[in-house]
Design a protein that fits this description.
7-stranded antiparallel sheet; 6 helices; about 35% strand; alpha+beta
């Protein structure tokens, strides 16, 4: 991912928090000579060796899974809030741009066994059911329902490289920076307001 130095996020804790809060990603690989992509939850976890990994699952009917055996190199893309930035918000002439936060994770994927897959599902469901009034638990599902888990491959991704971009108008002076935040807050667009909030964290 092309990222000018000014916009690189190299803070491991910041990246870790982002991945945990924006875990619905895009898994990309090459299958039969074609690039394939699937939109799925991909969770940051710690393996038995204490190393950070990504884990998730994919349908056995998804042709993308065929490519894991022939080429285990994958890319997982995670995106956060983003917003158009109008150059009319500056006190000088310039071009419009776009502010956004994104993380690319490169690694090697491997399929895990059924037992591990079910354990992954338990963690995933528990995470997203935490605030439910009547939370679903994998442990409480019937044998009939759990047979559906036979139709997926659980996977783990050994992380080789992480590239993180946080493009939040860092190249603007304080006056213009504050004005961008103010204009974003006026839009009533949730994505724009989220970007304004992230900008406010970066510069007081």
């Amino acid at each position: 991912m092309y990222t000018p130095e000014l916009y690189k996020d190299e803070d491991p804790e910041s990246i870790r928090t982002f991945l945990k809060e924006n875990s619905f990603g895009i898994l990309i690989n090459q299958t039969n000579g074609k690039l394939c992509a699937t939109h799925i939850p991909i969770e940051l976890e710690i393996n038995a060796d204490g190393k950070e990994i990504l884990q998730g699952h994919i349908s056995k009917l998804n042709p993308q899974a065929e490519g894991f055996a022939e080429n285990d190199q994958v890319l997982a893309i995670f995106t956060g809030p983003h917003s158009y930035i109008s150059s009319s918000w500056y006190d000088h002439e310039n071009v419009p741009t776009w502010n956004y936060i994104a993380v690319h994770v490169y690694g090697r994927i491997k399929i895990v066994d059924y037992t591990t897959t079910v354990e992954q599902l338990k963690k995933l469901v528990d995470k997203y059911e935490a605030n439910s009034e009547n939370p679903v638990r994998v442990e409480n599902l019937s044998a009939k329902t759990m047979r559906e888990a036979r139709g997926i491959f659980g996977f783990e991704i050994e992380i080789n490289e992480i590239q993180a971009t946080k493009k939040l108008s860092q190249n603007r002076d304080d006056h213009n920076y504050k004005n961008i935040i103010s204009e974003l807050e006026k839009t009533e667009n949730p994505q724009s307001i989220a970007i304004a909030k992230e900008m406010s964290k970066c510069r007081k």
